[in-house]
Amino acid sequence: MKPDHPDPAETFQRVRQQLILAQVRIMELEDVRDETAARLGETESLLRAAQALADQKLDEAAHAEQTRADLQAQFAHLQHVQHVTHEALGIASKQLEEARQVLELQLRETATRQQRIEQLDAEIRSLRSSRSWRWTAWLRALERALGGRKP
C-alpha cells in the first residue's frame, strides 16, 4: 500500500499559511532590526563619547604626571637651595659671632681709653688750676712769642 498523498489544496493551503507566517516573522525581524539599529547608533554614540572622555582623562593624567614631575624637580631644587642657605647661614653666624667678640673687645678697649682720656683731662684740669701753672703763665707766653712750641 501506498501512502496517501495529501490533497494539493490542503498542501497549497499549508504552504500559503507558512508563507504568511514567514512574512510575519520577517516583518517582526525587520522591526527588531530597526530597533536594534537605533540602539546600535545610540551605543556607538555613547562609545564615541566614552572614548573622547577616556582620551581627555588620559591627557589630563599625562598633564598631572608632568606637573608632578615638575613640582618634584622644583622641590628638589628648593631642598638644595635650603641646604646651601643653611650652610651660608651657619658661616654667617660664625662670622657674626667673631665680629661680636671683636666688637666687645674694641668696646672694652674704647672704654679703657675713654677712662684714660678722662683721667688725663682731669690731670690737665688739675694742673692748669694749680697755683704753679698760674704763676708760670708769663713764661709760657714768652716762649710762644719767641717762637717756641705751643702748649
**Spatial shape:** rod-shaped
Strand content: under 5%
Instruction: Determine the oligomeric state from the structure.
Output: single chain
Secondary structure class reads mainly alpha
Q: What share of residues is helical? A: over 70%
Low-pLDDT residue spans = none
Largest sheet: none
Separation of termini?
A: 177 Å
Give average pLDDT, whole number: 91
- In the residues, how many domains can be counted? 1
Q: What sequence of helices (H) and strands (E) makes up the elements?
A: HHH
Number of helices: 3
What value does the Rg take, in angstroms? 59 Å
How would you concisely characterize the structure shown here?
The protein is mainly alpha-helical and 151 residues long. The chain has helices at residues 8-128, 131-135, 137-145.
Describe what this molecule looks like in 3D.
- There is one protein chain.
- The chain is mainly alpha-helical.
- Helices cover 89% and strands 0% of the residues.
- The termini are far apart.
- The mean pLDDT is 91.
List the helices and strands and how they pair.
Layout: H1 8-128, H2 131-135, H3 137-145
Features:
single chain; 151 residues; mainly alpha; 3 helices; 89% helix; 0% strand; rod-shaped
